[in-house]
Amino acid sequence: MGSTEEDTTTSKPTSLYDAASSTEPLLFKPTTGSAYPSPPIEEPPQSGPSESDPTQSLQISFNYGPRPFKDLPFLILFLLFVLCTFAFGIFSIFHRNDNYSNVSAFTYDSNSTSCVQDTSFLSSQLWVSETSFFALSSSSLWTYLVWTLVITSVLSVPICLLLLFLLKHYTKQIVYVLLPFFIIMPVFFDVYWFVACTLSSSCSDAFPLVYRILVLIFILLIVGVIVWIIVANWHRIELTVRIIGVASDALSRNLGLFLVIPLLTVGLLAYYASIVVFLVFSRFNGKIVAKESNGEYTCVWKQDSWVPAYFTLAILTMLWSLTSMVEAQVYVTSGTIAQWYFSKDDTKPHRSIRRSLRNAFGPSSGTICLSGLLVFVVRVVRAAVDSAREEDVPGIVNLVLRCCVNALMSAIDFLNKFTINFAAITGEAYCTSARMTYELLRRNLLSAVFVETVSTRLLAGVIFVLSSVYAIAVCAILKGVSDLGVNMYTVAALAWVLLILVLGFFVHVLDNVIDTVYICYAIDKDRGEVYKHEVHDVYFQLPISRNSRSSYPSRTLDV
Question: Region Disordered: start and end of each range (predicted)?
């Protein structure tokens, strides 16, 4: 998909390490042998030691040139999983037995020593199912629920854009105005539920007074913890506000991400839908056989032996695909934001999203698959360890194994942090990107574990408040236009869940922008360049916070 513009502004990248720097740490001083060429308009001014300096190394910037394929074995392995899943799925459709759902209509025939179908029983069952479905679909509750969720889905788009605009221009006002509602909203819902449940005879019978008081106190204790967290981190609010503002400005200059990232999610859902269809049809692969029990024969369904194995393969493929798609979204976001960051002017680089998509699903697809596999393995192993902890298995060996596994998982999380962001910028392989990221941050007194992301918690509180206000509005409207009664609370709660999921996706994208800008700032600092002054004015405070408890401290990485 190369264009004329790209052909005239790129050159083929060279090796990461040259002979003069193979044993030296990466200082990233610009040289004539730059590994990552960029368009002439974006070429930073030359600085650094003379060419005779043996400590010179390559310059790191966004790699606009042709990128070689990296981590190909993991891409091939992933494609093998997908192809096997689809191949056996298509086989299950053509090899299905349509009598799977009619096992109860079969009876044992002693003359033929096999199971035969009772057609009259099947007809009566079909009529009952159709009647029940018609009665269910005519319920007014489902009508109001569907319309509420559709309207919420439509309104979520302008709500996200409005929130982005407010965070870009009025970040401080939004944060400080909504902070009190972090406390007011939970207390309001807690007290409202307690009073409503006390006044309702059915609710008060289901929940005795003692239980209602315990729930009330428990929620108030949680609110107290939230208050303590806000007070303990109050000195970080100002820096957090500025970080959110910088990230919102970067995201607002690349609004195409709001179209591309959701479309990738829709593509994943369509991909999932096909696998779910395969799983459903795979259950139809088998036959109805006679089973003898205490001298009596009954007809049961016997599944083909390969079906359980296919379920395992399909579920593993779905989970790996999910983590890989999340990493691909991070890659596309990072690549797009990095191109904006390393542009000399404030205009959005031409075809930046297309270039990032081409790199993500082309040369770096193996890197994304490897990263997704590592994230998937970490989640599965961590879930297994948590499950073993809940079983409370005694023994020192079990305790040591849990500690070792937790240490290993933490090491992998440390390795994975910022790796995909860096790979999106440079196009390097996963292990190379992880090593170079660590060296880059260490050299510049920055950290891969300590990053100012209190903004995540603040944004989570903001979207909670906004979703709660929306749910209250939905509840008030339903109370005025419908006769759902207590069911309106269910509809409003589902609308709240849908909106908070959409806004949570927005916060996830904004978090990726924050991480990408952080890496770009580290590259700038390493090269002694300043591409975005407004970013340096904010992010330079982060390493200061590591050395002084009185200044803005950073928070630990959330896993």
Answer: 1-57
